[in-house]
Write a structure and sequence with these properties.
The complex is a heterodimer of chains A (about 160) and B (about 180). With about 160 residues, chain A is mainly α. Chain A has seven helices and no strands. Chain A has helices at about 10-25, 30-40, 50-55, 60-80, 85-95, 100-110, 125-145. In chain A, helix 1 crosses helix 4 (about 60-80), helix 2 (about 30-40) runs antiparallel to helix 4 and helix 4 packs across helix 7. The radius of gyration of chain A is 17 Å and the shape is elongated. Chain B is mainly α and about 180 residues long. Chain B has one domain (about 45-175). Chain B has helices at about 1-20, 30-40, 45-55, 60-65, 70-105, 115-140, 150-175. The radius of gyration of chain B is 19 Å and the shape is elongated. The chains are: A mainly alpha (about 160), B mainly alpha (about 180).
């Protein structure tokens, strides 16, 4: 399956991207979960993306590019979506991934962990808008959670990576 | 000397921006060509979508209907900040374009007065619009953003026009430039 070791071609990256989307991203519930997952595959020191499965089937360079493209796609989709959709996505992520949403909301507000979710090479204005919208969405979702009880049957929390990972 | 290098750097950056703006997903054979076309795809669409998000009324209507007073205040503060950042980007790009053009024009033997005048008027117009939008944002706040959507779109288009003209004139002047 491995091909063109050391080289990068569009076909390889597109194959890897399809593989990533069908095997991994499709199983994650919502774009926020996908964004957090993709951001967590990036090494914070080198800035390169790593994924053992993709690296095994393709090459580390192809895996890096495919993950970078997927990250950019999901990020732009969320960054350019309306606040209404972002609030819905964030609420959905919080409800499906964590037993203690209040804890998550507190940490996200205090640590501003959402700042590391954007791809490194994206347009600064888009990144600023995304961070700003997440801040507002957190305020809206936070106020609804004050009234609503925590979800008693959360989906397996350990399956979803947190941005602090 | 360092000033000239800086200007050349700005010029090169402008050319890269121009390539992003003008390029229409041409099929490339090499890795670099592929990468560049991938990054530039739908660049203009992105800008328009961004302006809609920043200046459009949808998010404000949602916040008005759904959120508390504190969130509304937060929204207005955040949007104002983003809008001012966008304005500073436009101003910076226009300024860089003019610096690049001036550096080329100084070396040129075949200056076209009418084109130069038109370029100066365009640049001035962008600066005036930026100042106007900035003043409205500061005085009236993002409440006055609704009608700004059209103005903002116009300003972006005008900057793109300015970049196109500067690049074209730069190419012509480069051919007719006096060697140092």
């Amino acid at each position: 399956m491995k091909k063109n070791r050391g080289h990068l071609t569009p076909v390889d990256v597109e194959d890897a991207l399809r593989d990533l989307q069908s095997r991994t991203l499709a199983k994650l519930d919502g774009d926020f979960a996908r964004l957090i997952y993709l951001a967590s595959t990036r090494d914070y020191n080198s800035g390169r993306y790593e994924h053992d499965g993709l690296k095994f089937h393709f090459t580390s360079l192809v895996a890096d590019q495919a993950l970078a493209v997927a990250h950019r796609e999901v990020f732009v989709r969320l960054a350019l979506s309306s606040l209404k959709i972002l609030v819905r996505e964030l609420d959905h992520y919080i409800r499906s991934g964590y037993a203690r949403p209040d804890e998550l909301l507190k940490n996200w507000n205090d640590l501003e962990a959402y700042r590391i979710l954007s791809p490194a090479q994206d347009d600064p204005l888009t990144i600023k808008l995304f961070i700003s919208n997440v801040k507002i969405a957190l305020a809206i979702v936070g106020s609804t959670w004050k009234d609503a009880p925590p979800n008693p049957d959360p989906q397996c929390a350990s399956q979803l990576p947190s941005p602090a990972r | 000397m360092s000033g000239t290098v800086g200007l050349l750097g700005i010029g090169f950056l402008l050319l890269v921006v121009m390539v992003f703006l003008l390029r229409k997903s041409e099929s490339g054979s090499g890795d670099l060509q592929w990468s560049a076309s991938y990054n530039s795809t739908q660049f203009e669409d992105r800008r328009n979508a961004l302006l809609d998000c920043i200046f459009g009324p949808d998010d404000w209507t949602f916040v008005l209907n759904q959120a508390s007073k504190d969130v509304r205040r937060l929204f207005l503060r955040e949007r104002k900040e983003i809008a001012l950042y966008w304005l500073s980007e436009i101003r910076g790009q226009a300024r860089a374009a003019m610096r690049f053009h001036l550096a080329n024009a100084r070396k040129s033997q075949k200056l076209q007065p009418m084109s130069e005048l038109k370029l100066a008027v365009d640049y001035l117009s962008i600066r005036v619009k930026c100042a106007l939008i900035g003043a409205i944002l500061l005085v009236q706040g993002p409440v006055g953003l609704r009608w700004l959507v059209r103005q903002a779109g116009g300003l972006s288009d005008q900057l793109r026009g300015l970049l196109e003209v500067v690049t074209k004139m730069g190419t012509l002047q480069e051919k007719a430039s006096v060697p140092d």
